[in-house]
Protein 1
Amino acid sequence: MFPGGKAFGYIAYPPHPDGRTTYNEGFLYLGEGKLIPARVVEAPWLRRLVPSGDPVPVVFESGLGITRIESVTVNTTHDTVQRPEMPSFPVLFQGECGYTWDGEETFGMLERSTMRDQIEWA
């Protein structure tokens, strides 16, 4: 939640390799009234492992039009353990981010995961 009462949330999965959409649902809240249904049109998919300072903006489409919320990772943790008994187990990310929306700033969580072959390993 931002100091002025705005808030947002979402859960979205990357599109299938053929481009078909997957689950994508979110909301925007302006501090009063109802939640505004939204969907993510640009997501911060996990592609590289960066401890902090990684730009991770999110862009929503809703009845308000396009809403861009800037974000940068502050503290992160990554689970990159390869599990032979579960070869398709994803790389996991949890972190704290600094968010900016229309000049207001706050901190919040971000969780992401992706398949091992989607990561740019250094």
Note: Residues 7-118 form one domain.
Protein 2
Amino acid sequence: MVRDLEYEKNNIGYDEQYPQETGGGIKCKNYEICETVLPSWWYECKGQYLCTNCDMIFGTWSCPESNVFKTGKGILPIVNDTECPICLERKRSVTQPNCEHTLCIECFKRCYYGDWSGAPEFPYSKEVEDLYYMADETYDHIKWKTDYPLIETWGLEYDKWDTDMIYKRENEKYLECCPLCRK
């Protein structure tokens, strides 16, 4: 693949990591699906415009040591006004990675990424949440318990929710196949 300067120029994206003030980054070729913005140096490193998740989930790669071989399209074509076989609505749709069937983007995301709604919300402000996640092991954990007592309860609820979601995804691997042909 040759570097596509026209693509880079027309697909500048912004997110928390690559804000507008810094010039942003480049949208993944599957941006409508994954919503990932890549750093401007990505092509020099990877030789493509796919984020790591899209490359691993939808791309072609192999690990001969583990005897794992994955074939997929990588870049998933988007089509307009197609009936989704799951929700039965006519919407903007994405072609499956291993066949030519399509699903609307919302159903595709639900199948491939799961329904991660229902996570317990952090009980304090965004500023406190940022401090909490940035705190390292040396930070006074007793202070967190006295100043922010709801964090401990939230942590237990979140751990249970996370464990339940991991179990659910492990037992719903069939959702990562086309609902029509099971490829």
Note: The mean pLDDT is 86.
Protein 3
Amino acid sequence: MKPVTRWTLLVVAVVVIGILLVLWSQRDQQQAPPDSEIAKQPVAPMPPAAPITPKADEPVTALVLFDFDRSVLRPGETPKLDELIAKFKGRAFERVDAVGHADQIGTGRYNLRLSERRAEAVRAYLVGKGVDAGRIRTEAKGEGEAMTGEACKKLGPENRKNQKLVECLQPDRRVEITLVAAR
């Protein structure tokens, strides 16, 4: 093979390789839109997104129910607390109040201690989810502020064996959580 033929083949090979490299590097780039009326229309700029802030007067509360004679959070109640914690985000608040309650079955002293343990269970859950422990105030009300009122009075003896009464008094076994807004 003559030297001129070799040089010609070498130049052709380099040009072909160069073209392939250019095409290879452009394969991932977006294609320009076709030249049409749709492509030529101007796009209005989007206004900057303002953060969504809850209204100052919007109360942030939750009510968590407990099983009879228990102070352990029920699995079905924890989503309420998670939702409440999500509402705390971006809000200025002074504190969170967790007020425990009990039903009328049992002695007043026992129910006061039970409602205190319930409030502490909620407090522990909130702290575990990142709420500052120093900003959570717990209080125990015992059986003093029943939600059921007179509705369960005539259901028989006040003891744990009376299932109708235990079921009727469910709303009384609760912790009320309230966000106290910063002033």
Note: The longest helix spans residues 3-25.
Protein 4
Amino acid sequence: MPGRTGQCLCGAVHYSAEWVRDEVGACHCGQCRRWAGGPFLPVATKGVHFEGEENLGRYRSSDWAERGFCKKCGSSLFYRRLDSDAYMMSAGCLDDQSGLEFARQVFIDEKPDWYDFAQKTETYTGADFFARNPQRKGGES
């Protein structure tokens, strides 16, 4: 698939990435909501190349994952499993957001009752997520 580019709010961090699929997900877990200020809306990528890496902060949010952000403006840029070169990049930071489809939601059982998405998607509870990813059982994403 062709690549896409993106950047943080202030432009201090730019990236290019290869696309895995043209789908956006939503994670409603407590960590993502605190980190992104609402549900985290990622797209799956690989082969990510960053420019302005000196402005890229990384926070290890669990035994198996880290989250990336701009140290200057605070933009939430990505979630990445430590055992993978795949990145879940924030859809809101993409330069071109056309052609994307809202496809799935995870940790739907942790979603607060004050918002809902109109689109119909695949949905997974936290238990569903850990059943599909047994190496992560017992911790947050």
Note: The CA atoms of residues 58 and 68 lie 5 Å apart.
